[in-house]
Amino acid sequence: MAQRDFGDRFGFLVNEVGRLYGRRFDQLARQQLGLSRAQCRLLGVVASYPADRPPSQVELAERLELTPMGVARLCTRMEAAGWIRRQASADDRRVNLIRLQSRANAAIDAALAIGDGLQVEALAGFAAAERKQLVALLRRVRANLVAGGAQ
Q1: What is the dihedral of CA 80, 100, 31, 110, to 10 degrees?
Q2: Measured between alpha carbons, how far apart are the two ends of the chain, in Å?
Q3: Which of its termini does the chain have fewer beta carbons within 10 Å around, N or C?
Q4: What global pTM score does this model have?
Q5: Are 68 and 55 in contact (CB under 8 A)?
Q6: Distance CA 151, CA 1 (A)
Q7: What's the whole-number mean pLDDT along residues 20-24?
Q8: Where on the phi/psi map is residue 11: left (φ > 0), alpha (ψ -120 to 50), or beta?
Q9: CA 83 to CA 146: how far, in whole Å?
Q10: What is the per-residue pLDDT across 124-146, written as a single tens digit (0 to 9) for each?
Q11: Total Cβ atoms within 10 A of residue 64
């Protein structure tokens, strides 16, 4: 059987870029913040909710595409380290709402700065017009996949 080259196949290339980008972000976040990529993602998702409507652990699991048990373990570690706090829902005491602790805001800003620097690293050598076009094309790909039901 002939060897196949997958390097030019869109799906493989997008996944490989995502994997490498994620690994590099994880490396930088661990070095600079002492947080993993998963922890940064959790903080970012919690921060995306309005302060008067914090997410539940179940909502976080859905948004992060993790199991509820995985999010529970992640929240336990992050609560112990002072990044988040769990609060029982007033409507259902079985539901834990997740709120950011004050120190998390600085970490989110630092994680965004790491992402900005990583973007510069990843797009080194691209002209401004090429960067803009790449982002526009990826947005179109995302829109096509959302419209097709691959959310």
Answers
A1: -160
A2: 36
A3: N
A4: 0.85
A5: no
A6: 36
A7: 97
A8: alpha
A9: 33
A10: 999 999 999 999 999 999 999 99
A11: 16
